[in-house]
Q: What sequence folds into this?
């Protein structure tokens, strides 16, 4: 072999914008570059490559060849010379790797890189690129050794060495430990393995790469469940033999997402258990991602699939409200009614509600005892009254009117309007504790402040949307046209997509005519789960979303809880940092 032999003309410089091959590309249409390296036998440190051989093929046809010796800049170990036949004298006139890389990287662009024991070859190439300042294009890589371990049985071949596989598939070139010969032999092995993939329902390059990875027998056996699913946004449901929903998910591309459950990347134990019980996958196509997210939430809430962890019990929310009577107190309840004077929520757990209640108790003198007080009968005071932390309405030390002004009104105004008095009181206490170096107590109050603000911001944000009888919005669709959503009292009542180049008004009129009727109710989430209304809010608040029509103004109080979002972010960030510090 000559010192440098390019069987394909030298190519132009490397295009830095090269992207990987589409995983959905059929195997017969995929361009492969089969590569083999000879090295000095050391670790991949940026050098050590003595020869590169690469063959470009597509559909069984050879498109080009690149082959060259490489001067590694270091002596060749004698055992390498014995193994490969490459001598020091052969390498002295050869170009160094930094001169070879541009042509090689151009050669492999827009192709799938194939090698036998690919991590070894790819490791040397990536290290060489890093050392000499070339961007590794990060191509998709297919390892014929790994693929052979999945395709061939032990009674077919005793091992997966290149020489063994080349003989099994009757390769036209025998491996000789020279780069080009070994690359040509690997091409024949690749073609033989691809021919065996059809029986495993592997038709695309993405499926072939995933098939070569380690997957469980269950994943391989149930892989057919992903067949025939649509490549569109929607919801997918894994169902058991008795048609019970096992797991509900959503995706912009149902087919691609479901196929991922049968790849090596899926390692969750509960999902493996779910796949073992699944017998079919049902797909519900949706107009766009918002409708898919809402459908997912509703299906999970309706069926409580055993392998979903979140959103299973939307009805399990709690509220913090003022009790009835002359001296109200805070109570954690499951439901609220139109007669309630003031309330805050919804909270996802009783613990979150109690954290917010503790924050209000630190800021305003609401009584904490659970006695039912009477304007006629005096009840003995508790320790909090003796400590000056309660106005002692039980002993009638304060009139109902004074109690209302000092304790009840600040809570009521914080829930629907301005929480400034509560925030100021808590910040003052936090500063006093910090000044006295009582940092742990200050951190507790900071968490309570965050609990109060988080609940108030959430409720006022939800109430601003759910108070609107009807709202229509649109955002540009990726394929053209507009994604349309009709929202009534915070519930998605209708969805659709207008065709590209067509005015969206007729589509919106059709959506409105067929939309769900939603009646007004009580509270900040009268017609949908809090999660559904918040998903809608997130969709509406995106910069590209446009409001089309509203039956009423969409607004939040100017002096409402929303103006404390920065303070809430700081409080939550400080709490997270403290938790991380304690754990580390």
A:
């Amino acid at each position: 072999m000559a010192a440098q032999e390019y069987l394909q003309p030298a190519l132009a410089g490397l295009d830095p914008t090269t992207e990987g091959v589409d995983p959905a590309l059929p195997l017969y249409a995929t361009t492969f570059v089969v590569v083999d390296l000879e090295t000095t036998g050391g670790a991949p440190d940026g050098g050590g490559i003595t020869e590169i051989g690469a063959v470009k093929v597509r559909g069984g046809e050879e498109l080009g060849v690149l082959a060259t010796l490489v001067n590694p800049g270091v002596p060749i170990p004698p055992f390498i010379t014995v193994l490969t036949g490459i001598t020091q004298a052969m390498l002295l006139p050869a170009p160094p790797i930094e001169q070879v890389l541009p042509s090689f990287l151009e050669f492999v662009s827009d192709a799938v890189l194939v090698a036998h024991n690919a991590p070894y070859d790819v490791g040397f190439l990536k290290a060489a690129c890093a050392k000499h300042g070339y961007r590794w294009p990060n191509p998709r890589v297919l390892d014929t050794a790994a693929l052979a371990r999945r395709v061939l049985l032990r009674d077919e071949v005793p091992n997966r060495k290149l020489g063994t596989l080349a003989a099994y598939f009757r390769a036209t070139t025998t491996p000789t430990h020279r780069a080009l010969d070994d690359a040509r032999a690997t091409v024949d092995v690749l073609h033989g393995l691809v021919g065996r993939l059809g029986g495993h329902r592997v038709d695309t390059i993405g499926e072939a790469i995933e098939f070569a990875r380690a997957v469980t027998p269950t994943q391989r056996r149930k892989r057919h469940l992903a067949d025939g699913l649509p490549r569109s946004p929607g919801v997918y449901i894994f169902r058991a033999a008795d048609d019970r929903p096992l797991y509900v998910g959503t995706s912009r591309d149902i087919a691609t997402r479901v196929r991922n459950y049968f790849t090596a990347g899926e390692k969750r134990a509960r999902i493996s258990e779910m796949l073992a019980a699944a017998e079919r996958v049902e797909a519900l196509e949706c107009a766009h991602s918002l409708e898919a997210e809402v459908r997912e939430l509703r299906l999970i809430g309706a069926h409580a699939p055993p392998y979903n962890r979140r959103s299973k019990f939307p009805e399990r929310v709690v509220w913090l409200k003022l009790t009835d009577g002359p001296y109200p107190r805070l109570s954690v309840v499951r439901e609220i009614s139109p007669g309630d004077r003031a309330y805050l929520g919804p909270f996802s757990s009783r613990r979150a509600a109690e954290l917010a209640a503790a924050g209000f108790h630190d800021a305003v003198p609401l009584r904490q005892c659970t006695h039912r007080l009477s304007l006629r009968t005096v009840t003995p005071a508790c320790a909090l009254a003796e400590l000056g932390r309660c106005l002692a309405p039980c002993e009638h030390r304060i009139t109902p009117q004074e109690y209302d002004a000092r304790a009840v009104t600040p809570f009521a105004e914080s829930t629907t309007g301005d929480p400034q008095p509560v925030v100021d009181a808590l910040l003052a206490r936090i500063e006093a504790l910090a000044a006295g170096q009582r940092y742990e107590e200050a951190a507790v109050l900071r968490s309570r402040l965050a609990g109060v603000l988080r609940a108030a911001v959430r409720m006022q944000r939800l109430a601003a949307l759910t108070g609107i009888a009807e709202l229509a919005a649109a955002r540009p669709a990726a394929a053209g046209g507009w994604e349309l959503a009709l929202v009534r009292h915070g519930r998605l009542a209708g969805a659709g997509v207008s065709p590209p180049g067509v005015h969206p008004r007729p589509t919106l009129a059709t959506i409105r005519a067929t939309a769900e009727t939603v009646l007004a109710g009580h509270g900040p989430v009268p017609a949908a789960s809090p999660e559904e209304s918040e998903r809608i809010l997130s969709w509406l608040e995106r910069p590209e979303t446009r409001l089309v029509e509203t039956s009423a103004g969409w607004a939040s109080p100017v002096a409402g809880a929303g103006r404390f979002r920065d303070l809430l972010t700081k409080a939550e960030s400080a709490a997270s940092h403290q938790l991380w510090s304690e754990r580390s």
